[in-house]
Amino acid sequence: MNAHPPWLRPLQVLAALLAVAIVVLVALLLRIDPEPAFAVRGADGPVGEALPVAAARADAPIGDPAPKSAPAPRQPELSAAATTAVLYGTVRSADGTPVDTGAIWLFREDKHVGTASGKIATFAFAGLLPGRHRLQSRIDDQLPIDREIEVVAPTSRVDLELPARWVLTVNAVAPDGSPWRKSKATGARHVQRSLVAIAFDAPVPGDQPPTSLSAIEGGLGRFRAGGHLFGRDIKPMPPEALGVLTLPAGKPVHVALFLRNVLIAQQPASSGQAELTFTLPPDVLEKKLARVRLRVVDQGGKPVGKAMVAISDAQSSSGGEPTGDDGRVQLENLVPGRLDLGIRAKELQAPNIEFVVPAGADLDFGDIVVRPVVNVEFQFDNFGGQGSVRANLLDRIRPDWMARHLHFGAENGKSLQTQLFPGRYGMLASSRNGVAMVIVDVGATPVTAVRFDLRRGADLRIEYAVGGRRIGYEVTSVDGVLIRRRDVTGVAGETVELPPGPYILAVTDQAGAVTRRNFTLPAAGLRLTVP
Predict the structure, then answer these.
(1) Which of 111, 274, 349, 458 has CA 20 to 30 A from 103's CA?
(2) pLDDT tens, 484-522?
(3) Torsion angle, CA of 484/228/111/529, rounded to 10 degrees?
(4) 5-19, 157-171, 436-450: least confidently modelled range
């Protein structure tokens, strides 16, 4: 057995003492401040002074640079001697029962600043800078909390009362009554992660917009899939249970089964109903799975054997399937949606792209050309030890294919060596020292190193309020540099620092229709409402 280094024991003791001190601090605060300064209650209760969010209107302006709705000025870095605060409180269910297990996340200006997990009946976040924060929760079989609160020094207390809810178990069985998960005929092993139940206040007209997520979210309440135990004290579900829906109390719903974004079946449920069962015919899911065929060739048109071809969503990965000596490969049982294609063959590579696979499709991509990769060095010496570069291929490979975001972190050194498919790339660099946007032609001329001239940019605040609907939005520069591509639901937002100038917003509605609008980001910043 290896001996521990001599400096480890003092650090372990210090960590233990710090943990005890925080527990004692929470206990003392809860004793000396029995009445909460404010409370978070219900799904719609106000907390403090909420930031204004523009109502989503089809004819609404996409941005408002006026002072009354412009983002707040960027906060300066505070010295170590600046006053900090402790946020503490309790978490109880709607009937007053303390919550045993879950997680709470705290954010300040879109930056994660604290996590409380496990036993969260009492919690505390120390060392916070005073100001507005956002608090979010995930507690199995409870409705989530998403609130903005004002933290003041030296202490702020918030007692969280979870919204009233009812829990509906959604079952999926074969026609003979056996659990769907155990039925080999349904192709269950291919779709386990992507088949979910979502509740709405009215019947769903059809499929949702294609997504790159493994499974969609949205609608009313929250779905927890069978076999997922975020809270370790929750009992496993029976084999026929697809999962449980936690829903707002007092509301009847329509429950829809989705295979990623594809509607499979739906039926109503009454408020307070304990179970709802879907009977799925043996081939109902197999008919939705897709197939993709292609041939990998080099620049001279010669087939490339033993190339690895992988198709996956944004939340999973696959080693792929090898091509034969003729360069051909066929990938079966693909769950429909927006998927990634990756091809590797020693020093040869294809571009990283996204494409949409419809339900039940049999797609033949024909020949895909792989080319020698180009070695590129990113220089991060002026990034301050943190930040990243996002890059996307600007050259359109095929009309219906989209460039996939490539991400390169600056946390692991002053430079990074990588390999890229030759072509024109739009790159957005960002760190605490500023931002930069460049276009680099990889392969046209020897590219030995790429360095970014970081400068202070402007804040683009993107906000959406779409309720239980699901939409997609994409922000690009007028040159095609990909800034953000998101599939969203609910009410939330994000802030991104960008060079001032012209940009394009593209919004995909629930029916799949795309609307594009141009806007200009001024130096003072802009608040952008989606849609």
Answers:
(1) 274
(2) 988 888 777 889 999 999 999 999 887 788 999 999 999
(3) 40
(4) 5-19
> What pLDDT, on the 0 to 100 scale, is given for residue 28?
46
pLDDT surpasses 90 at 449: no
Residue 456 has which token pair? 């202070």
195 pLDDT above the threshold of 50: yes
Find, among 143, 167, 139, the residue nearest to 241 by Cα: 167
Tokens coding 462:
């993107």
Q: CA quadruple 135, 138, 139, 145: dihedral positive or negative?
A: positive
Residue 426, token pair as written in the block: 């739009």
Q: Which one, of 262, 273, 288, lies nearest residue 207 by Cα? A: 262
The three-point CA angle 221-58-531 to 5° equals 50
* Two structure tokens written together for 489: 């639901």
Residue 56, pLDDT > 70, answer no
Cα-based distances in Å from 241 to 29, 47, 172, 269, 299: 43, 37, 6, 16, 51
Alpha-carbon span 278 to 267, nearest angstrom: 8
Matching residue, tokens 């269950």 = 188
CB 319 within 8 A of CB 222: no
The span from the CA of 39 to the CA of 161, in Å, is 7
Give me the domains of the chain, ranges plus CATH numbers: 74-161 (2.60.40.10), 165-286 (2.60.40), 290-372 (2.60.40.1120), 374-451 (2.60.40.1120)
How far apart (Å, rounded) are the C-alpha atoms in residues 91 and 144? 12
